[in-house]
Design goal:
It is built from 6 helices and 7 strands. The chain is an alpha/beta fold and 118 residues long. Helix 1 crosses helix 5. The longest helix has 12 residues.
């Protein structure tokens, strides 16, 4: 049996991670990027990255295909980067080839001056 930390470490070893600053720079440059926040609804309601769309981790697999094309460049974010890493691993398994997890998550988004909506 594996612990949560082991699962997270395995996911992070098999995915691409990007920083909040890298995502902000890519968005500012007009890169076609889909930013998805996978936190819980109550976390989203307290504030979220302005360009993000919400798809909670609990429904990601069932909603992603109808909302995001497989060829899209997707960056997933959560509060700290753990849930988004697990989510990125899942999307890779589902055939989404251009997926990354935002290391540091929403905390780093705010710390690096990212736009926040509520």
């Amino acid at each position: 049996m594996k612990t949560a930390q082991q699962l997270i470490a395995e996911a992070k070893a098999s995915i691409t991670e990007v920083t909040a600053r890298e995502v902000q720079d890519r968005l500012a440059a007009g890169a076609p990027l889909v930013l998805i926040d996978v936190r819980e609804q109550n976390e989203w309601n307290l504030g979220h990255a302005a360009p993000a769309q919400y798809i909670g981790r609990g429904v990601l697999e069932s909603q992603i295909e109808s909302r995001v094309p497989r060829e899209a460049h997707v960056v997933l974010m959560c509060a700290s980067g753990n849930r988004s890493a697990l989510s990125a691993r899942t999307l890779l398994d589902m055939g989404y080839p251009n997926v990354a997890s935002m290391a540091g998550g929403f905390r780093d988004w705010i710390a690096s001056g990212g736009a926040v909506a509520d």
